[in-house]
Write a structure and sequence with these properties.
The protein is an alpha/beta fold. It contains 13 helices and 16 strands. The protein is globular, with a radius of gyration of 20 Å. It starts with a strand and ends in a 6-residue tail after the last helix. The model has no long low-confidence stretch (mean pLDDT 97). Bound molecules: nicotinamide-adenine-dinucleotide.
């Protein structure tokens, strides 16, 4: 069993913790919090040992009825690998601690590529992650882009990608972020940072991205256009998406034309937290005009990177060397009912 610690039990950390606990080859040794909160109560409710960043706050946790298993350092000493899901920028500050303790570490997309010197996506570079001490799982948007670009590059070769990201303003539980009533160009300059981030995983891809933030919380929506190196066919593109373990077709017959209906559908399917781990690609939007491919894809920002973290753990520990096998184990453990 691979012993996994989760440092930072928030939006991403709590999902990765549940996904680790569901895997047949992994054991969750604990999760960490900085102060008592509703998430700390959930860790207790789930029976996850809770470790804290600052032992001076132990009394505050215990007064709130939340038992403390020890310090973050104690948690790391009990683990083979840590998933750092602390807020962007905090994770990089934890690197010296991980180095000192000699523990393997995975960071999230809020950190720069340099934090690990290697950026990961299961479809694109799983084998290159085998045995590595440090890895960064790319952001939710980059993960969604990498999946579809890699699949099309394998089939046709990709000459150029242009993508517009319509980004959610904050996560559903995040009361501090906005905008409340605006479309914010983020950044106003073109290109956005997402293209270079894709190139940390797929360096040969020519890509230009543009991004804006809108007042929604459920998902991002991508408008993707690719120049293919060979003429494609819509039927073949749909077939590739349909067979892909991390991409799903939002079928015309469902009548779904929005992120809201898609999230409701995932909830009704019984998905844990109504999470959509795969790209939600709208069937009707998939258009192939000669060498031009167009599509809309919905990306559930809280969920798509979770399954990537699980595969990254297996790759770095070297226990499964075939990416397809790891993806299968991860998906099966989560009851990945197709959309
Ligand atoms: P979050 O704020 O929801 O959760 C972070 C957690 O870390 C909080 O529970 C906080 O209490 C805890 N924390 C803060 N400082 C800590 C410390 N020093 N030690 C231990 N715990 C600490 O953040 P999030 O949205 O889960 O983001 C985490 C990372 O994942 C970031 O790099 C972010 O960019 C990335 N990411 C977020 C999303 C998303 O949509 N939320 C998507 C993809 C990637």
């Amino acid at each position: 069993m691979i012993k996994v610690a989760i440092n930072g039990y928030g939006t991403i950390g709590k999902r990765v913790a549940d996904a680790v606990a569901a895997q047949p080859d992994m054991q969750l040794v604990g999760v960490s919090k900085t102060r008592p909160s509703h998430e700390a109560y959930i860790a207790k409710f789930r029976g996850y040992p809770l470790y804290i960043a600052d032992m001076a706050k132990k009394d505050a946790f215990e007064k709130a009825g939340i038992p403390v298993a020890g310090s973050v350092e104690d948690m790391l000493n009990a683990a083979d690998i840590v998933v750092d899901a602390t807020p962007g920028g905090v994770g990089a500050k934890n690197r010296p601690l991980y180095e000192k303790l000699g523990i393997k570490a995975i960071w999230q997309g809020g950190e720069d590529h340099e934090v690990a010197g290697f950026s990961f996506n299961s479809d694109c570079n799983y084998r290159e992650a085998i045995g590595r001490p440090f890895t960064r799982v790319v952001s939710c948007n980059t993960t969604g882009l990498c999946r579809i670009i890699k699949a099309m590059d394998n089939e046709y070769g990709v000459e150029k990608v242009r993508a517009v990201m319509v980004r959610r303003g904050g996560d559903p539980g995040d009361i501090k972020r906005g905008p409340i009533d605006a479309v914010v160009l983020n950044p106003v300059t073109i290109p956005s940072h997402h293209g270079p981030d894709v190139q940390t995983v797929l360096p040969h891809i020519n890509i230009v991205t543009l991004a804006m933030i809108v007042p929604v919380t459920m998902m991002h929506m991508h408008v993707v256009q690719m120049d293919l190196k060979k003429e494609g066919s819509r039927e073949r593109v749909l077939e590739i998406i349909e067979k892909h373990p991390r991409m799903g077709l939002v079928r015309k017959s469902t009548g779904i034309t929005s992120t809201a209906e898609l999230k409701e559908y995932a909830m009704d399917l019984g998905r844990c937290r109504s999470d959509l781990w795969e790209n939600g690609i709208f069937e009707e939007s998939v258009s192939v005009l000669g060498r031009d491919l167009y599509l809309f894809q919905a990306i559930h920002q809280e969920a798509d990177v979770v399954v990537e973290n699980i595969d990254a753990i297996r790759a770095m520990m070297g226990t499964v060397t075939d990416p397809a096998r790891s993806i299968e184990i991860t998906n099966d453990a989560l009851n990945f009912v197709p959309i």
